[in-house]
Specification:
heterodimer, A: 834 residues, alpha+beta, six-stranded antiparallel β-sheet, 20 helices, 26 strands, 48% helix, 19% strand, B: 134 residues, five-stranded mixed β-barrel
Chain lengths: 834, 134
Amino acid sequence: MGDFFASRFGASGFLNEHLWLGHLGHFLLVLSFISSLLATVAYAFAEYNKEQKSWLRLARTAFIAHGLSVLGVFVLLFIMILNHWFEYHYAWRHSSTTLPMKYIISSFWEGQEGSFLLWQFWLVVLGFVGIRILKDWEQPVMGVVSLTQFFLGSMVLGIYIFGYKIGSNPFVLLRDEMANAPIFQRPEYLQFIADGNGLNPLLQNYWMTIHPPVLFLGFASVSIPFAFAVGALIRNDYTTWVKPALSWSLFCVAILGTGILMGGAWAYESLSFGGFWAWDPVENMSFVPWLLVVAGIHTHLVYKHTGHSLTTTLLFYIFGFGMVLYSTFLTRSGILGDTSVHAFTDLGMTGQLLIYLGALVLPPLLLLVARYRSLPSIKKEEELFSREFWMFIGSLVLLLSAVQMTFTTSIPVWNKLFGMKLAPPENVVRHYNDIQIWIAIIAAVFTASIQFLSYKSGRLSPMVKFAAYALGISILAAVGLAYAFKIDFTEQYVIDFTKAKVLSSVFFKFKFIGRDFLLLLTAVYTVLGNLAYMIFVVKGRINVSGAAIAHFGFGLFLIGVLISQGKKEVISINQAGIDFGKDFKSNEKIENVLLLKDSALAMGDYSVSYKGLQVEGVNNYYLVNYVRKNKAGAVQEEFQLKPNAQINPKMGLIANPDTKHYLTKDVFTHVSSVPNNEELKDTSTMHEIAVGDTFFNLSSFTIFKQINRKPDMPIGYDATGKLLIAAVLETKTMDGKTYTNQPVYVVDQAQGKVSGIPSEEKSIGVTYEIAQIKPEAEKFVIAVREKETPVDFIIMKAIVFPYINLVWLGGILTFGGTFLSMYRRRKEAVKEIA
Amino acid sequence: MKKSHIIALVIIAIAVGVIIANTGDYTTYANFKQAQSEPESAVNVAGYLAKDKPLIYDPMKDPNYFEFTMYDRDGNVQEVIYKGSKPQDFERSEQLVVKGKMEGSNFRASEILMKCPSKYVNDEITLKEVKAKA
């Protein structure tokens, strides 16, 4: 017993460790894990024993205990990181003392453990809100939430059961993690640890302090519609959940969408691929749950108004949550490997993640099958021109989008399952755009049109005329915009099944209205159609305009995407115009340009010059000046960008772009390569010459003019007893400059020694020294040391993104509108309860 | 059957068709021999940089031309041309994955993925020199 306490709470034998934090952390992790299980069980009993209030009280107490312990763990982890207690592996691995405060916060969620905790934290917050407002639905919803917390909690537990490691614990000590390192033999090892590993420089961006918390709140909130769906199935009650669940789903869509958009803003500002969306696996897998919940909301509304589409709604919510878990599996198991910029290492929890996916998603699906016959359904078919019919179809279109993204992103999974050697498409962006742009076009038409139809009615409402007007004006506007932005009206399409090796005979091509033009047209129609709806149908009543505002924003977003990405212009096209021969196709991207220091190049409307390097800590800022002049040569506009390249000892060059923002466009600049001047070598050559001879250097030539027997020596030089001979050397450079140098040869007659005093010409990096004088031949041997001239240049890329602000504005309106809807639906739900 | 069910089935059928057609975009992992035998299709080749062969990159002449030699995992050696700037620290890369296709005697990479020996998060403790107290 004494040993037990000594090893845990007493002297560890190591100095200056703060072991209390880890012990408290472990304790709270276990407490949160057990209390979440207790809450789950208690909520289950509370559900089936409604008369006995004690079960509900126990469940709430357990959940609150769980929540407080999660909060405690959260605070402890912050204390550990903020104080740089590097005896803990997590603090050492993800932070460093040189990290500014705003990024120390990001260290918290760089690791898997921290991000799981963040997820738990938000679910606790949502749970506390839930306990207050869920009323009659508290038991099933909070039961499911507690069960989710139980599984999430096990991810950070870090204990071994029967030899299997369950979860990964953030309070592991560095000396336990790397027990074999010799420094841990020493009790004072902590003073040898210079610093933590620091934060991945790519994550050192202010968006990284705000994007992950919002995204994880989004992920956490997907649990609530899921919990409602499961609760409805458990209770076999499909009416009372409809109103309260709707506002939670809307919250989820607004928050998760905002989180994804912030991730796009981060990618745009700090990654160098030049855009906000790259169809990266991690991006896709955060987008898929969002799409499914969006689809779920639409069928949810259909069910609320007509009684149709109940099963579909339940499935969307179950799969939406399932895809959050699947996406966690993909990104955390290491299976994606190098296909993603979001590098998460494998913590050996692959199996655990798969088990949870099965344990949380399969039972609801089985329950749905079991209950299928008792689900209320409406015998009467939907009318062809009813709102519910088209909303249902629209949801299926969103599902299609989700399926294609999931299918391609899962390539590593197919390889594992079927032993294939598939790799992602050669052009990933084109692969997704080929499908997703068509889906966007259909979605745009639907969001503009369907709201003018009525529920449960086969007849067109008179309001449809507004949709027709909007469409008419949209066609005119789109044609005008297409002219202005040079968007093609027609395009050659190729339908090709031959590459997929299934239907080798199906190959044809045809000409049709251009895809980009169709997207522009339908997006403009979405904007105008929703505007018309707000003005003529709801007559400007803002409280019922949430959906219309969201859809209006979606239209703006699409226009922004189309113009900023489709019409982005790489202005740093290489001017050298070198012919690479037939091996190179002329349409290839030649997007990087070399910019010598102080020389200017024309790029787009600008004259761009590189002004030199500014070093601040680990960051190298390359000063790039942009000047725009009018025809008369007067400066219209002038600005400086500072693209940053961090030469990171561990990751190499991390380029951070810099962008000049205008209302109508962005000028984006990033450095793709810089010269490595450390590799410059000295050259050293010997020349045996007489007066009047000439020799050549790397970039200059030198004439031996004459011999000077009375050279100027530094003040205080003691020349007594010494013979001084200088060679007068005149160096001419390529650009016509002349420099004179006099290396001196010293013969110390008293001591019988000879030596040379070199002369350096700093501006051209050449040093002369007399190595030897051969009097009989009247020749001097001159040693020339020459530095390779350090060339100062950057290789950079500059892109103009027109109207990218429409993307951000559209996104903000979409999610703002969704919040407005949430507010309205919440009020409806409260009214019903009251 | 309800209209909505029929349309749903039609949409699902189209979806399956489109996704299958779309998988024609997928590439495969291969070695350079296989890439040579199928010069039309893009492949991913994993391997190592041949550090004894020269890297050709002269940004003063053309910042978008980079040539190097690489071994695939089966030991086939191949010159690779990449039209872009040389990735920083390329020499230090331990493993390479190039995506592209054969063109003539060269492999034309449209994308290079490199694995460096020290990924950022590595478990290597930087030690501070502290003089032992007497």
